[in-house]
Design brief:
- The complex is a heterodimer of chains A (450) and B (291).
- Chain A has 18 helices and nine strands.
- Chain A has 450 residues and is α+β, with helices and mostly antiparallel strands.
- Chain A folds into two domains: 162 residues, Periplasmic binding protein-like II (D-Maltodextrin-Binding Protein, domain 2), CATH 3.40.190.10; 223 residues, D-Maltodextrin-Binding Protein, domain 2, CATH 3.40.190.
- In chain A, helix 8 packs parallel to helix 10, helix 9 runs antiparallel to helix 10 and helix 17 runs antiparallel to helix 18.
- Chain A is globular, with a radius of gyration of 25 Å.
- Chain B has 291 residues and is mainly alpha-helical.
- Chain B has 13 helices and two strands; from the N terminus they run H-E-E-H-H-H-H-H-H-H-H-H-H-H-H.
- Chain B has a two-stranded antiparallel sheet with strand order 1-2.
- In chain B, helix 2 crosses helix 13, helix 7 packs antiparallel against helix 10 and helix 10 runs antiparallel to helix 13.
- The relative contact order of chain B is 0.12.
- The model of chain B has no long low-confidence stretch (mean pLDDT 90).
- The chains are: A alpha+beta (450), B mainly alpha (291).
- At the A-B interface, helix 1, helix 3, helix 4, helix 11 and helix 17 of A face helix 1 of B.
Amino acid sequence: MRKNMWVTVLVGILALSVILSACSGGSNGNTSSGTGAKEQTTDKTSAQVVKLKIWGGVPEENGPGDVVANWNANNPEVQVEYVRYVNDDSGNTKLDTALISQTNAPDIFISYGETYFNRRMNAGMTASLDELIQKAGFDVDAVIGNDNVIRQDGQIFYLPAMKQISMVLFNETALTAAGEPLPTDWTWDDYVALAGKLTNNGVFGSFIEAPGEILPKILLTLKQPQDSYYDAEGLSSFGSDAVEKGMQLQKQLYDEKSMVSWPESISSNLKPYSELFTGQANMILGGTHLMRYVKNTQEFPREFKVAFAPNPQYAKGEKVNIAGFNDLISINSNSAHKEEAMSFISWYLTEGNTAMIPGGRIPTNKQADMDEVVELFVGEAEDFINVESLKQVLSIDYVFPKQVKSVAYAELTKILTEESEKYMMNAQSLEQAMEKVKARADQAIQAESK
Amino acid sequence: MKENIAGYLFILPNLLGVFFFIVLPLLFSLYLVFMDWDYLKGFSGLTFAGLDNVVRMTKDEYLGRALVNNAVFTAVTVPLAMVTGLMLAVIINRFVYLKNMLRTIFFLPYVSSLVAVSIVWSVLYNARSGPINSFLRDIGISNPPGWLASPQWALIAIIILVAWTYIGYTLVLYMAGLQGIPKDLYEAASIDGANRATQFFKITVPMLKPTSFLIAITLIISTFQVFAVINIMTQGGPLNSTMVMAYHIYLQAFQYYKMGYAATLSWLLFCMIFIVTLVQWRSQKKWQQHF
């Protein structure tokens, strides 16, 4: 008798859950297939306030808070809410799940880097923007430049809001003491040589963040800015001599003690800006994203000025910048307010993102006045910054990398890092590293595209 | 009958919770073993993969490394925490004063946030300027270990830290166990002329067997799943010397988005823990007959 009871109850629960899950599954299907019809009938007649949700990775106090306040003050009928997600693995997963959900989904979201963006686009989460752009009267070519947006099958799925520029930051006092001029047109060989000259009294001449920024990867990007990880046949480009040279040069930095050792930099979680400002290193590889630390003389008090140089090149005379267009803004393909979202985006790209400059983000807007940008950039810290060199670096007309493919991208990065690590820590020879990096990468690509 | 229904109704909310948040995800993860899942596409992103995920395991060079590291980690951490905890429990139990305070102090690491603890210990372990190496240099060791920065020492460093957090747990349980041992056993033993050491090995240790059993099972299960410390302190490095199963699973799932393969690895981990626990239960029956 009792056993029967159990069975009945369990079966009941099972049946209930099956029904429930079937229901929710069904409604999911309905909404996703029905959105096309829904959008067109979104009635604009209702006087209700439209609420837009934006997900981005920048802390609210570094700009987004001001952007949202500026917009909301002038647009009472479309109110915007900013939600910050942390731009790491778990934060991006959070955004992904929010995008799948139907209730709490963002209307607008910002992806950082093509890898995350491509994943979302391939999963159909990003709305095609061409029609919306036309309706909103936004001139992509005049504001951002047609070449600076990568199209997928001729369609636009995102617009970049920020131009990041990679640069090398110097402790100017140390540079002057070494009797060296600020480099302008230089290669990575020059960098390694200069690192040696800037190393003294227990202060390292260089710091490059491992494993995020490694020379094999950087030199590969410099040599082949378009889809640097892949060769013409669609396999990996890791057999390139740029990778080999990158590994050699980075190893040289460790071997000559111009840079803190690879494992220590990782296990102590060392950051370029703190290495420079606390006097641990005289030269760091960084970029415009470090400007908010450069300006912050309260948290990082220092005696010296920071001077800037463009990132070193693969060969002299080239002008490739390893950073590039970022803050990729997309509209959720399930959003019920795409037009409002687009009008916010076009405002943001033409004037709204000026509020992000003090936080260290250069707008993609071509018409932005660079002098004004530098002024907002520097703020009140001009005594601690070589402003002329900053202007110089920002005014160069760079070639930026483009990433269209992203087959097994995260895995390829990991493979490159791991095999480099083994070489840096003397666990394998350069030949072995080069052989394994290419073989493993090709294997990963083949497994993925199978 | 009516009473029964009322009873089931009472536990129904909880039962539903268990079903939806534990049983259902569990079954789904088992289903994923035979699937590839692009979870961004929702349920339509599921494609049948057959035994691909299982075959993949045989070619996975990290898996072997992770399993060895897991085995070493558990085999050292659990006895270390148990022995130290037992020693401290016996010593503190002798103390008449400060018993509670000492117990609390040793228990604190166990209830502290592992994230905070890991960050503090990474500073302590810093090879160049950390307090541990400064101390070692002061007492005359000219070339102290590189701790987290060294492939040979990183796993040891993690073991020390994790054992340290578990000592509080074993200590509290052993102290409770010690209080349950009748005093007359010790009296009888000392009348028969047994010294302290003999009493410890012939009375204390055997009488604490059930406690030891409980601790061993719970610690083995939780040390097999070590993750937070690795994620914060070493990310499996340097040279994969601290790569463990849980971190490997995390990488597969949330960095490479191979949900099916991650689910397969999770089930492998589950099976291993299950077998170990089963063996322990069997052997416990033997122990009890021994009494």
